[in-house]
C-alpha cells in the first residue's frame, strides 16, 4: 500500500514538473512562411520563438501554446531578415575624407545605433563589413561579440588589404608591404576574433597569395574586390586559379575579359565618343556599364566561357547594382546622381544596365550564387532598391529573397545561424504587410521587423 502511494506521488510530481506547458517569448500565428531555399510558401503556420531563436514551425491548430506575446500574422508572408554582405562603417560614420580618426568610447552607443538605423528599420538584420580603419576594430569587435536585439548583427572582415604603393590608401584599407607582413596581418586578425578577410584589387601577387593561403589554412571566409581598369593588378582569372571564390561587385566582370590593348583602346574610344572624358566617379561607373555592351557586341564567346569557369569554381558575387543604376535613374527613394547626362546618354546607360542584368540572370540561372552587397550610405534602402531592380529585370520574388537571405548566409559561413525560417535559427524575421510576390514594388512597403525574437520598434516605409 505504501509503495503504491509513493509511486502515485512520484507520478503526480513528474507531471507537475515536466508536464507544464512552456510559455514562449513570442508566437507568430496564421503565417505564410517562405522557404527561401526552394521558393515554396507554406500557409497556416505558427512560429514558436524562445530565447531569440526559432524553436519550431508547425501547422496551425496542431496544438495550443502559450506565449508572452502573440502576433496574429493574419495570413501575411513571413520571411527571414535580409543579409548585406558588403558594407562600410565609414559610409555611416563619415566618408573617405571625413570619417573620424577613432571611435570615441563615450560615443559608441550612439554610433552603434546610428549604424543599426541604416539597416534594421528596412529589414536588414545582418551585415558584413568590407573594410574599416584599423583603430576601429576593437569597438566593432565588441559589437560583433555581443549581439543585441536592438542592433543589427555585425560581422567583420579584416582589411581591405592592399600592397605598398605611391598612392595614398583609402580610409579603411590596410597596407601590407611584404608577403610575410600579409601573413602576419591575417594571423593578427584571426587572433583578435576576426574570421573573415577582404583582399583588395590593389594587392600584388606575393602579398595576395600569402594572405589567401594563410586565411585559407585558418578556415577564414575570404572575399576579394578584384578587377579594375588598370592592368597592374591580378585579374579574376588569376585569383580563381589561386582559389578565391567570393567576389565583390558583379560590374567588375568585364575586366576579366577585356584584357588586350586593342580591346581596351577600342572601348576607350567608344566611351569617349558618347560620354566624354573618364574623369569623375560617375563616369567610371557609367564606363563599367559600357564595358558590358562592348562584351556583348565583341566578346560574347569569351563571356560565355568565363561564366562557365565561374560556375565550375562555385563562385559567389555581391550585387552592388544600385550604385550604378542611381547614376542615371531614380530609385524608390533617390534621384539620379549624374545630372549632366544628356537624354541620349541616359538612354544608353539604361540599355547598358539591361545588358548587365541579363548577364547576372544568366549567372544566377547557371548556379552562381548572387548575394546582396550595398557598398554605400543608406544601406538598408539600397538593399530594398536592389531587390526591386532584380525583379524589374527578370528575377522572381522567390529568387530575390534567396539572394537577400540564404545566399549571403552561406557566403559568410553562418547559414547554420541565419538565412532561413527553420528550427534552431535566429529569430530574425520580416512580416510583410503587402506581399512582394504579388507586386515586387511591395519590397519598399511596410513590414514588421523581428530581431532576435523581439519586435523592432519601428515600421519601415
What does this structure look like?
With 461 residues, the protein is an alpha/beta fold. The chain is built from 15 helices and 20 strands. Helix 8 (261-275) packs across helix 9. The longest helix has 23 residues, at 343-365. The N and C termini lie far apart (70 Å). Mean pLDDT is 93; it is low at 1-19.
Please tell me what the overall shape is. Answer: globular
Major β-sheet profile: 8 strands, mixed
| Rg computed from alpha carbons, rounded to a whole number of angstroms | 24 Å
| Secondary structural class | alpha/beta
Put simply, the count of helices is 15
Question: Mean pLDDT, rounded to whole units?
Answer: 93
Q: Beta-strand percentage?
A: 15-25%
Q: What is the helical fraction, as a range of percent?
A: 25-40%
Q: What is the distance, rounded to the nearest whole angstrom, between the alpha carbons of the first and last residues?
A: 70 Å
- Uncertain spans: 1-19
Query: Tally of extended strands?
Result: 20
